[in-house]
Design brief:
Chain lengths: 44, 130
């Protein structure tokens, strides 16, 4: 898939919950230099 | 997960944030045991999955020859198949993301596909100028 491309602002503002997070919105947890986001199929 | 945890320990790798389809409580229990220093978003409604174009795989993507081969490879590496928590039909993927941009994208074509995390790290290093 071609990149880079803009992150949807609606996605950036999405409320999130989880483990070890820095803030309540998705973008709060992304580093300005880049964060490797790894989508898992399942836990285990 | 073990490979990712090892890569993330090094200083020359981007910060890692996992997204999983189980509940926040299940995710906390899992990560507290398996990767206490890890970070993970619980996305049981798969909103982030959808936002990054990841949906449910077809039968061929989930159970086809490439997935079966990946499963055998995993078993030979000592990785069993855990009890699925969340939507077990979702496909995985990896993305290098800032608050404004997606710098590198690798949505997976089939279950069990390996991510090219070193390629993502290279993009990250180039951006950092290191």
């Amino acid at each position: 898939m071609a990149a880079p491309y803009p992150l949807d602002p609606a996605l950036a503002g999405l409320p999130v919950a989880g483990f070890g997070l820095n803030g309540p919105r998705f973008a709060d947890n992304l580093d300005g230099q880049g964060t490797l986001l790894v989508f898992l199929r399942h836990l285990g | 997960m073990d490979v990712l945890r090892t890569l993330a320990k090094g200083g020359d790798f981007p910060p890692v944030l996992c997204v999983h389809p189980a509940s926040a409580a299940e995710g906390e229990s899992f990560f507290r045991h398996r990767w206490p220093k890890g970070r993970a978003i619980a996305d049981p409604e798969a909103k982030l999955y959808a936002g990054f174009g990841l949906g449910r795989g077809s039968l061929g993507q989930l159970l086809g020859p490439r997935s079966a081969l990946a499963g055998v490879r995993g078993l030979l590496s000592g990785h069993g198949v855990g009890r699925p928590r969340g939507d077990a039909l979702l496909l995985s993927g990896s993305f290098l993301v800032t608050p404004r941009e997606i710098l590198w994208a690798e949505p997976h074509d089939y279950a069990g596909q390996r991510s090219d995390w070193p390629a993502a790290a290279q993009v990250w290093r180039t951006r950092a100028g290191t």
